[in-house]
Amino acid sequence: MAVLRHEMPDRVPVDLGSTAVSSIHQRANNVLKALLGIEADEPVHDVTQGIVVPDEQILQRFGVDFRRVALRPPSTAAAASPSGSQNTYFDEWGMLRQRTELYWEIVEHPLADAKVEDLRHYPFGSAQGRPWPDPHDPCRVAGLAEEAQRLYEETDYALVADFLGGGIFEQALWMRGFEQFMMDLVTDEPFATALLDSLLELYIEFYAVYLEAVGPYVQIVALGDDLGMQTGPLISPKLYRRLIKPRHKELYDFIHSHTKAKIMHHTCGSVFPFVQDLIDVGVDILNPIQTSARGMDPVALKREFGERLVFHGGIDVQQILPFATPERVREEVKRIVAILGQGGGYVLAPSHNIQADVPPENIVAMYEAIQEVSEQADSQRSPTAWATWDRRSSSTQCKRSLSSSTPIRCASTLAW
Fold first, then answer.
1. Which domain holds residue 173?
2. Sign of CA dihedral 372, 375, 379, 380
3. Domain CATH number, residue 31
């Protein structure tokens, strides 16, 4: 892909639905379908977040250049998923989740009272009598290699191997409990490192199986570990570098050794102090570029790291998409493209999943705006025109409205 080589594509590549952090909530998807006159019934692929991959008609209409491939549910999926009438359930990691209006939140942490010796039966020991996930369950890869190969050979889409779930740091927080694991990092380092190492070993096993199936076909492997909150880092950079970074590097080195795909790392929040560290461990693409968080200035990010990272995301889901007018959405899209897209190295996407309160008109406006930029570049016969947009050109109208039935597709952007 040209954009992953930091080459200037003929237009900005577009994503929606390729990962568990760039998709759309089922409610927002339903009203979007109603606006566009599309009838489809997409299953929720991430129950805890309530997200779906939009129907292929929407992906085609928005000119989405990426397609998701993912591990299948395990053979225990029926026992580790909620039924329609349940208000709580245990997921396959042994965490008790409770239904809220939009999501399934963790309310019990299976390792809350664990000791180091409780982890020694890893990887197939138990947490409160519930087995750890089995990476070798054959159901996880049933038909997966064939699907990835078909998409690779028959389409021009970039294929993304989606998340396993949270990263090793997040998974430790979830299983142990946020407060307890944060304390472990500074007061019980033997337990913290034992849990991190157990998860690292398990994740390596998962990726060995996953990449055996899809490694020859995917262009991106998506992972994540949230390191930031709205106002700053979740932990100090010093603590990250001592305890988390070496384990990230071991995992990412393993992945790079088993596929030619690029690694995309997702981390929400204010994470500018960690970006160089993520480059150090082998990250090629940074997601989601939460520009509404403190210190996440896209100009500074592009200036400091644009030659070494591809940026994925950047269209604000906290304020712009849910609350702005469609015209303001268009302006923001063009502003971000002009900054992060300068010289290539940018994939347009929301800065996390599109949430339930986002008006469908604003979703359409986001993808219309990027088409307007492409149309303007075409009219100027310059492949770089979209990276030099300014506000005075915002009146340019897209020749093919995304709210019409005309599909928009430009596979040459990927420059295979």
1. 3-414
2. positive
3. 3.20.20.210
